[in-house]
Amino acid sequence: MANSTVPPSLACGLINAANRYLSAEPFRFQVVATGLVLRLRQVWMLLFVLYLLSSLQRFLAADPNGKVTCDQETPGPGALFWLRQYPDGKVSLQCELSQRYLGGAEDNVTCFAQTVSEGEKWSLQLAQHPNGHMLNPGKQRYMRCDQQTGHMRCDRDLPWGPEAVITLHFDLKEKKYGLRSGAGSLLAADGSLQAELSPQTLYSLELRGGLLALRDADGRYLTGREGTVKTFKTDKPGRDELFALEPSAAQVSLRTFAGGRFVCCRPGERGRVGNLHCILDCPHMLNMASGVWH
């Protein structure tokens, strides 16, 4: 059975209205918004509830006068923020101490705005490998691509094989996400698989306690509650509309040089080298992380 543990943190980048990333500089632990691409200095760990920890292991904080710092090794009163999410997929960060919003550009990042404008909105880009497995906690099943029917389904107890590897594609221009199968097709809102990026294959990202919800242009959420994964109209995403992105362990098949047969295990036997036989004409997969054969 799948593991439904909610991650305690989420690594991401924060992009402002000028398409620059919030960055933590090692010199005096300064905070600027000058990054052009997502690198280590632009990665922030969102610790629920909500602290922002930089790659330098220092906490972002703001004082009552709006000055932003990132030199605290332990979070003080000004390091707690509220994450506000908007229908366009952007977020704002409100300091709990001062009730002011984080914003600014270049080397003038402050937390002094009393209301939210475009200058105080940020787009989230997840800072993890885009290839992974999508777990639906509502069904306790993993998503897979069914090439025969041309749909994606949430029906796997274990994420195994290339059909269970999902690429979370981030479109930098639209600041939205698409779900791409191992064969390269993209999941559309109506549940079909399409070859090209389009408005129907892009979704706004929402965070719900460390889990992900994906919302289409009509305000409908991707769900695993039906036979195929497609969008569903609901006022608030429930467990069927939430997904956890898990790392994808490397999987390989091994083939003998002389006979050209694939290595596998006897039926009912797992993981022992003494039980391995070279008898198959089709590949069986090995999880490189766990050493378990299938």
Automatic annotation (TrEMBL):
GO MF terms, alphabetically ordered: actin filament binding; protein-macromolecule adaptor activity
Coiled coil stretches, renumbered: none
GO cellular component: actin cytoskeleton; cell projection membrane; cytoplasm; filopodium; growth cone; lamellipodium; microvillus; ruffle
Entry keywords, A to Z: Actin-binding, Cytoplasm, Cytoskeleton
Domain Fascin-like: 19-124, 140-245
Any single Pfam family the record assigns to this protein: Fascin
Cellular localisation: Cytoplasm, Cytoskeleton
An individual GO BP term: actin filament bundle assembly
Family under the similarity heading: Belongs to the fascin family.
Name assigned to this protein: Fascin-like domain-containing protein
Upper taxonomic lineage: Eukaryota, Metazoa, Chordata, Craniata, Vertebrata
